[in-house]
Automatic annotation (TrEMBL):
Protein name as it appears in the record: Glycosyltransferase family 2 protein
Keywords on record: Glycosyltransferase, Transferase
A Pfam family per the record: Glycos_transf_2
Domain Glycosyltransferase 2-like: residue ranges: 6-114
Stated family: Belongs to the glycosyltransferase 2 family.
InterPro entries the record matches: Glyco_trans_2-like, Nucleotide-diphossugar_trans
Superkingdom of the source species: Bacteria
């Protein structure tokens, strides 16, 4: 069994591959795989011609982030001890991959680790997706060291201390391959967004840890699939967040959280309409409709244990919007 596979999911991402794959090939120590979600933009021809050393797994249709990784990684099952899952729009740096794997190997109870994730647009800023380590508040809203909601901090070394986290970013993280398969991988029903946080919840319910290390750094473009301001992304985030909580928490805990989130997101939805952003306002409503439409798919987490979270904020929505706390250090 080999040590690690670096696995990139691709769907019509030829431009991203052309821009970011060179750094991955140059600075990586392990096998590189591309799982292709039935691209139609000549991505495969590009890989075959320019990067014959990259292994490719071709899927018959676009299964999304969750389903694409699940089906592709099933082909690699039993061949590698670890996976590093990497977005196609990420630039890496020297020793980025070996640093992550050695970090896992040295920490026995550690299931997954993410690097410092900075912006590929502004190298001095943290990236939206993961930044300096991800946390959840009591309503399961994600936030990061270096990013709360849409407020992003400059990297001044303030989050260089390694730490345990509530979730690792799907933009780039390393994890034990055996555990990924034992837990059934990502939830296919999510299609895209929140699936890595759902997986992290299930990992932590096993009594295992997740971590962030600044000793490895990558640069993420972000928004290559769906822009952060996309109504579709907002809809999926709301739908999948509710689904994640429903399937991972005791039922009584879920409905109390549902009521609180519903009130806050109703306020947010009304705010979008008042700002003339009707598409975003509708997306909030559609997220709730989508959850109820697919709720029967999931087994309620009746017997699941609620995991204590590691971050400083119990209500990051209130801290940010009502108390004016815009930085992680202010929480």
């Amino acid at each position: 069994m080999k040590t690690c596979a670096i696995v990139i999911l691709n769907y019509n991402g030829k431009e991203m591959l052309a821009r970011f794959l060179p750094s991955v090939v140059k600075y990586s120590q392990f096998d590189i795989w591309v799982i292709d979600n039935a691209s139609t933009d000549h991505s495969l021809e590009f890989l075959e011609k320019e990067y014959p050393q990259v292994f490719v797994e071709k899927l018959r249709q676009n299964f999304g982030y969750a389903g694409g990784y699940n089906r592709g990684l099933e082909k690699l099952k039993g061949s590698y001890q670890y996976y590093i899952l990497l977005n196609s729009d990420v630039e890496v740096t020297p020793a980025w991959d070996i640093t992550l794997i050695e970090y896992l190997q040295k920490n026995q109870n550690l299931a997954a680790v993410q690097p410092k994730i900075l912006s590929a647009v502004d190298l001095s800023q943290f990236d939206y997706a993961g930044a300096g380590g991800g946390f959840l508040d009591s309503l399961y809203y994600p936030y990061c060291r270096g990013r709360i909601w849409n407020q992003i901090e400059n990297d001044k070394g303030q989050y260089d201390e390694d730490c345990l986290v509530d979730w690792t970013s799907g933009a780039c993280f390393a994890l034990q391959s055996k555990l990924f398969h034992e837990l059934g991988g990502f939830d296919d029903h999510f299609f895209a967004h929140m699936e890595e946080i759902d997986l992290c919840l299930r990992i932590r319910q096993q009594g295992l840890d997740l971590a962030y290390t600044s000793k490895s750094t990558v640069y993420h473009l972000g928004g290559a699939t769906l822009d952060r301001s996309s109504p579709r992304k907002l809809e999926l985030n709301i739908r999948n967040s509710l689904s994640m909580i429903y399937k991972n928490l005791p039922t009584s805990s879920f409905w109390w959280i549902f009521i609180q989130k519903g009130i806050l997101e109703l306020i947010a939805g009304i705010g979008y309409f008042l700002q003339g952003k009707s598409a975003l306002g509708k997306a909030v409503f559609q997220g709730y409709v989508g959850f109820f439409r697919q709720r029967s798919i999931f087994a309620p987490g009746t017997n699941k244990k609620k995991i204590p979270f590691l971050g400083p904020s119990s209500y990051v929505f209130i801290d940010f919007f009502f108390r004016g706390r815009k930085k992680f250090s202010e929480l």
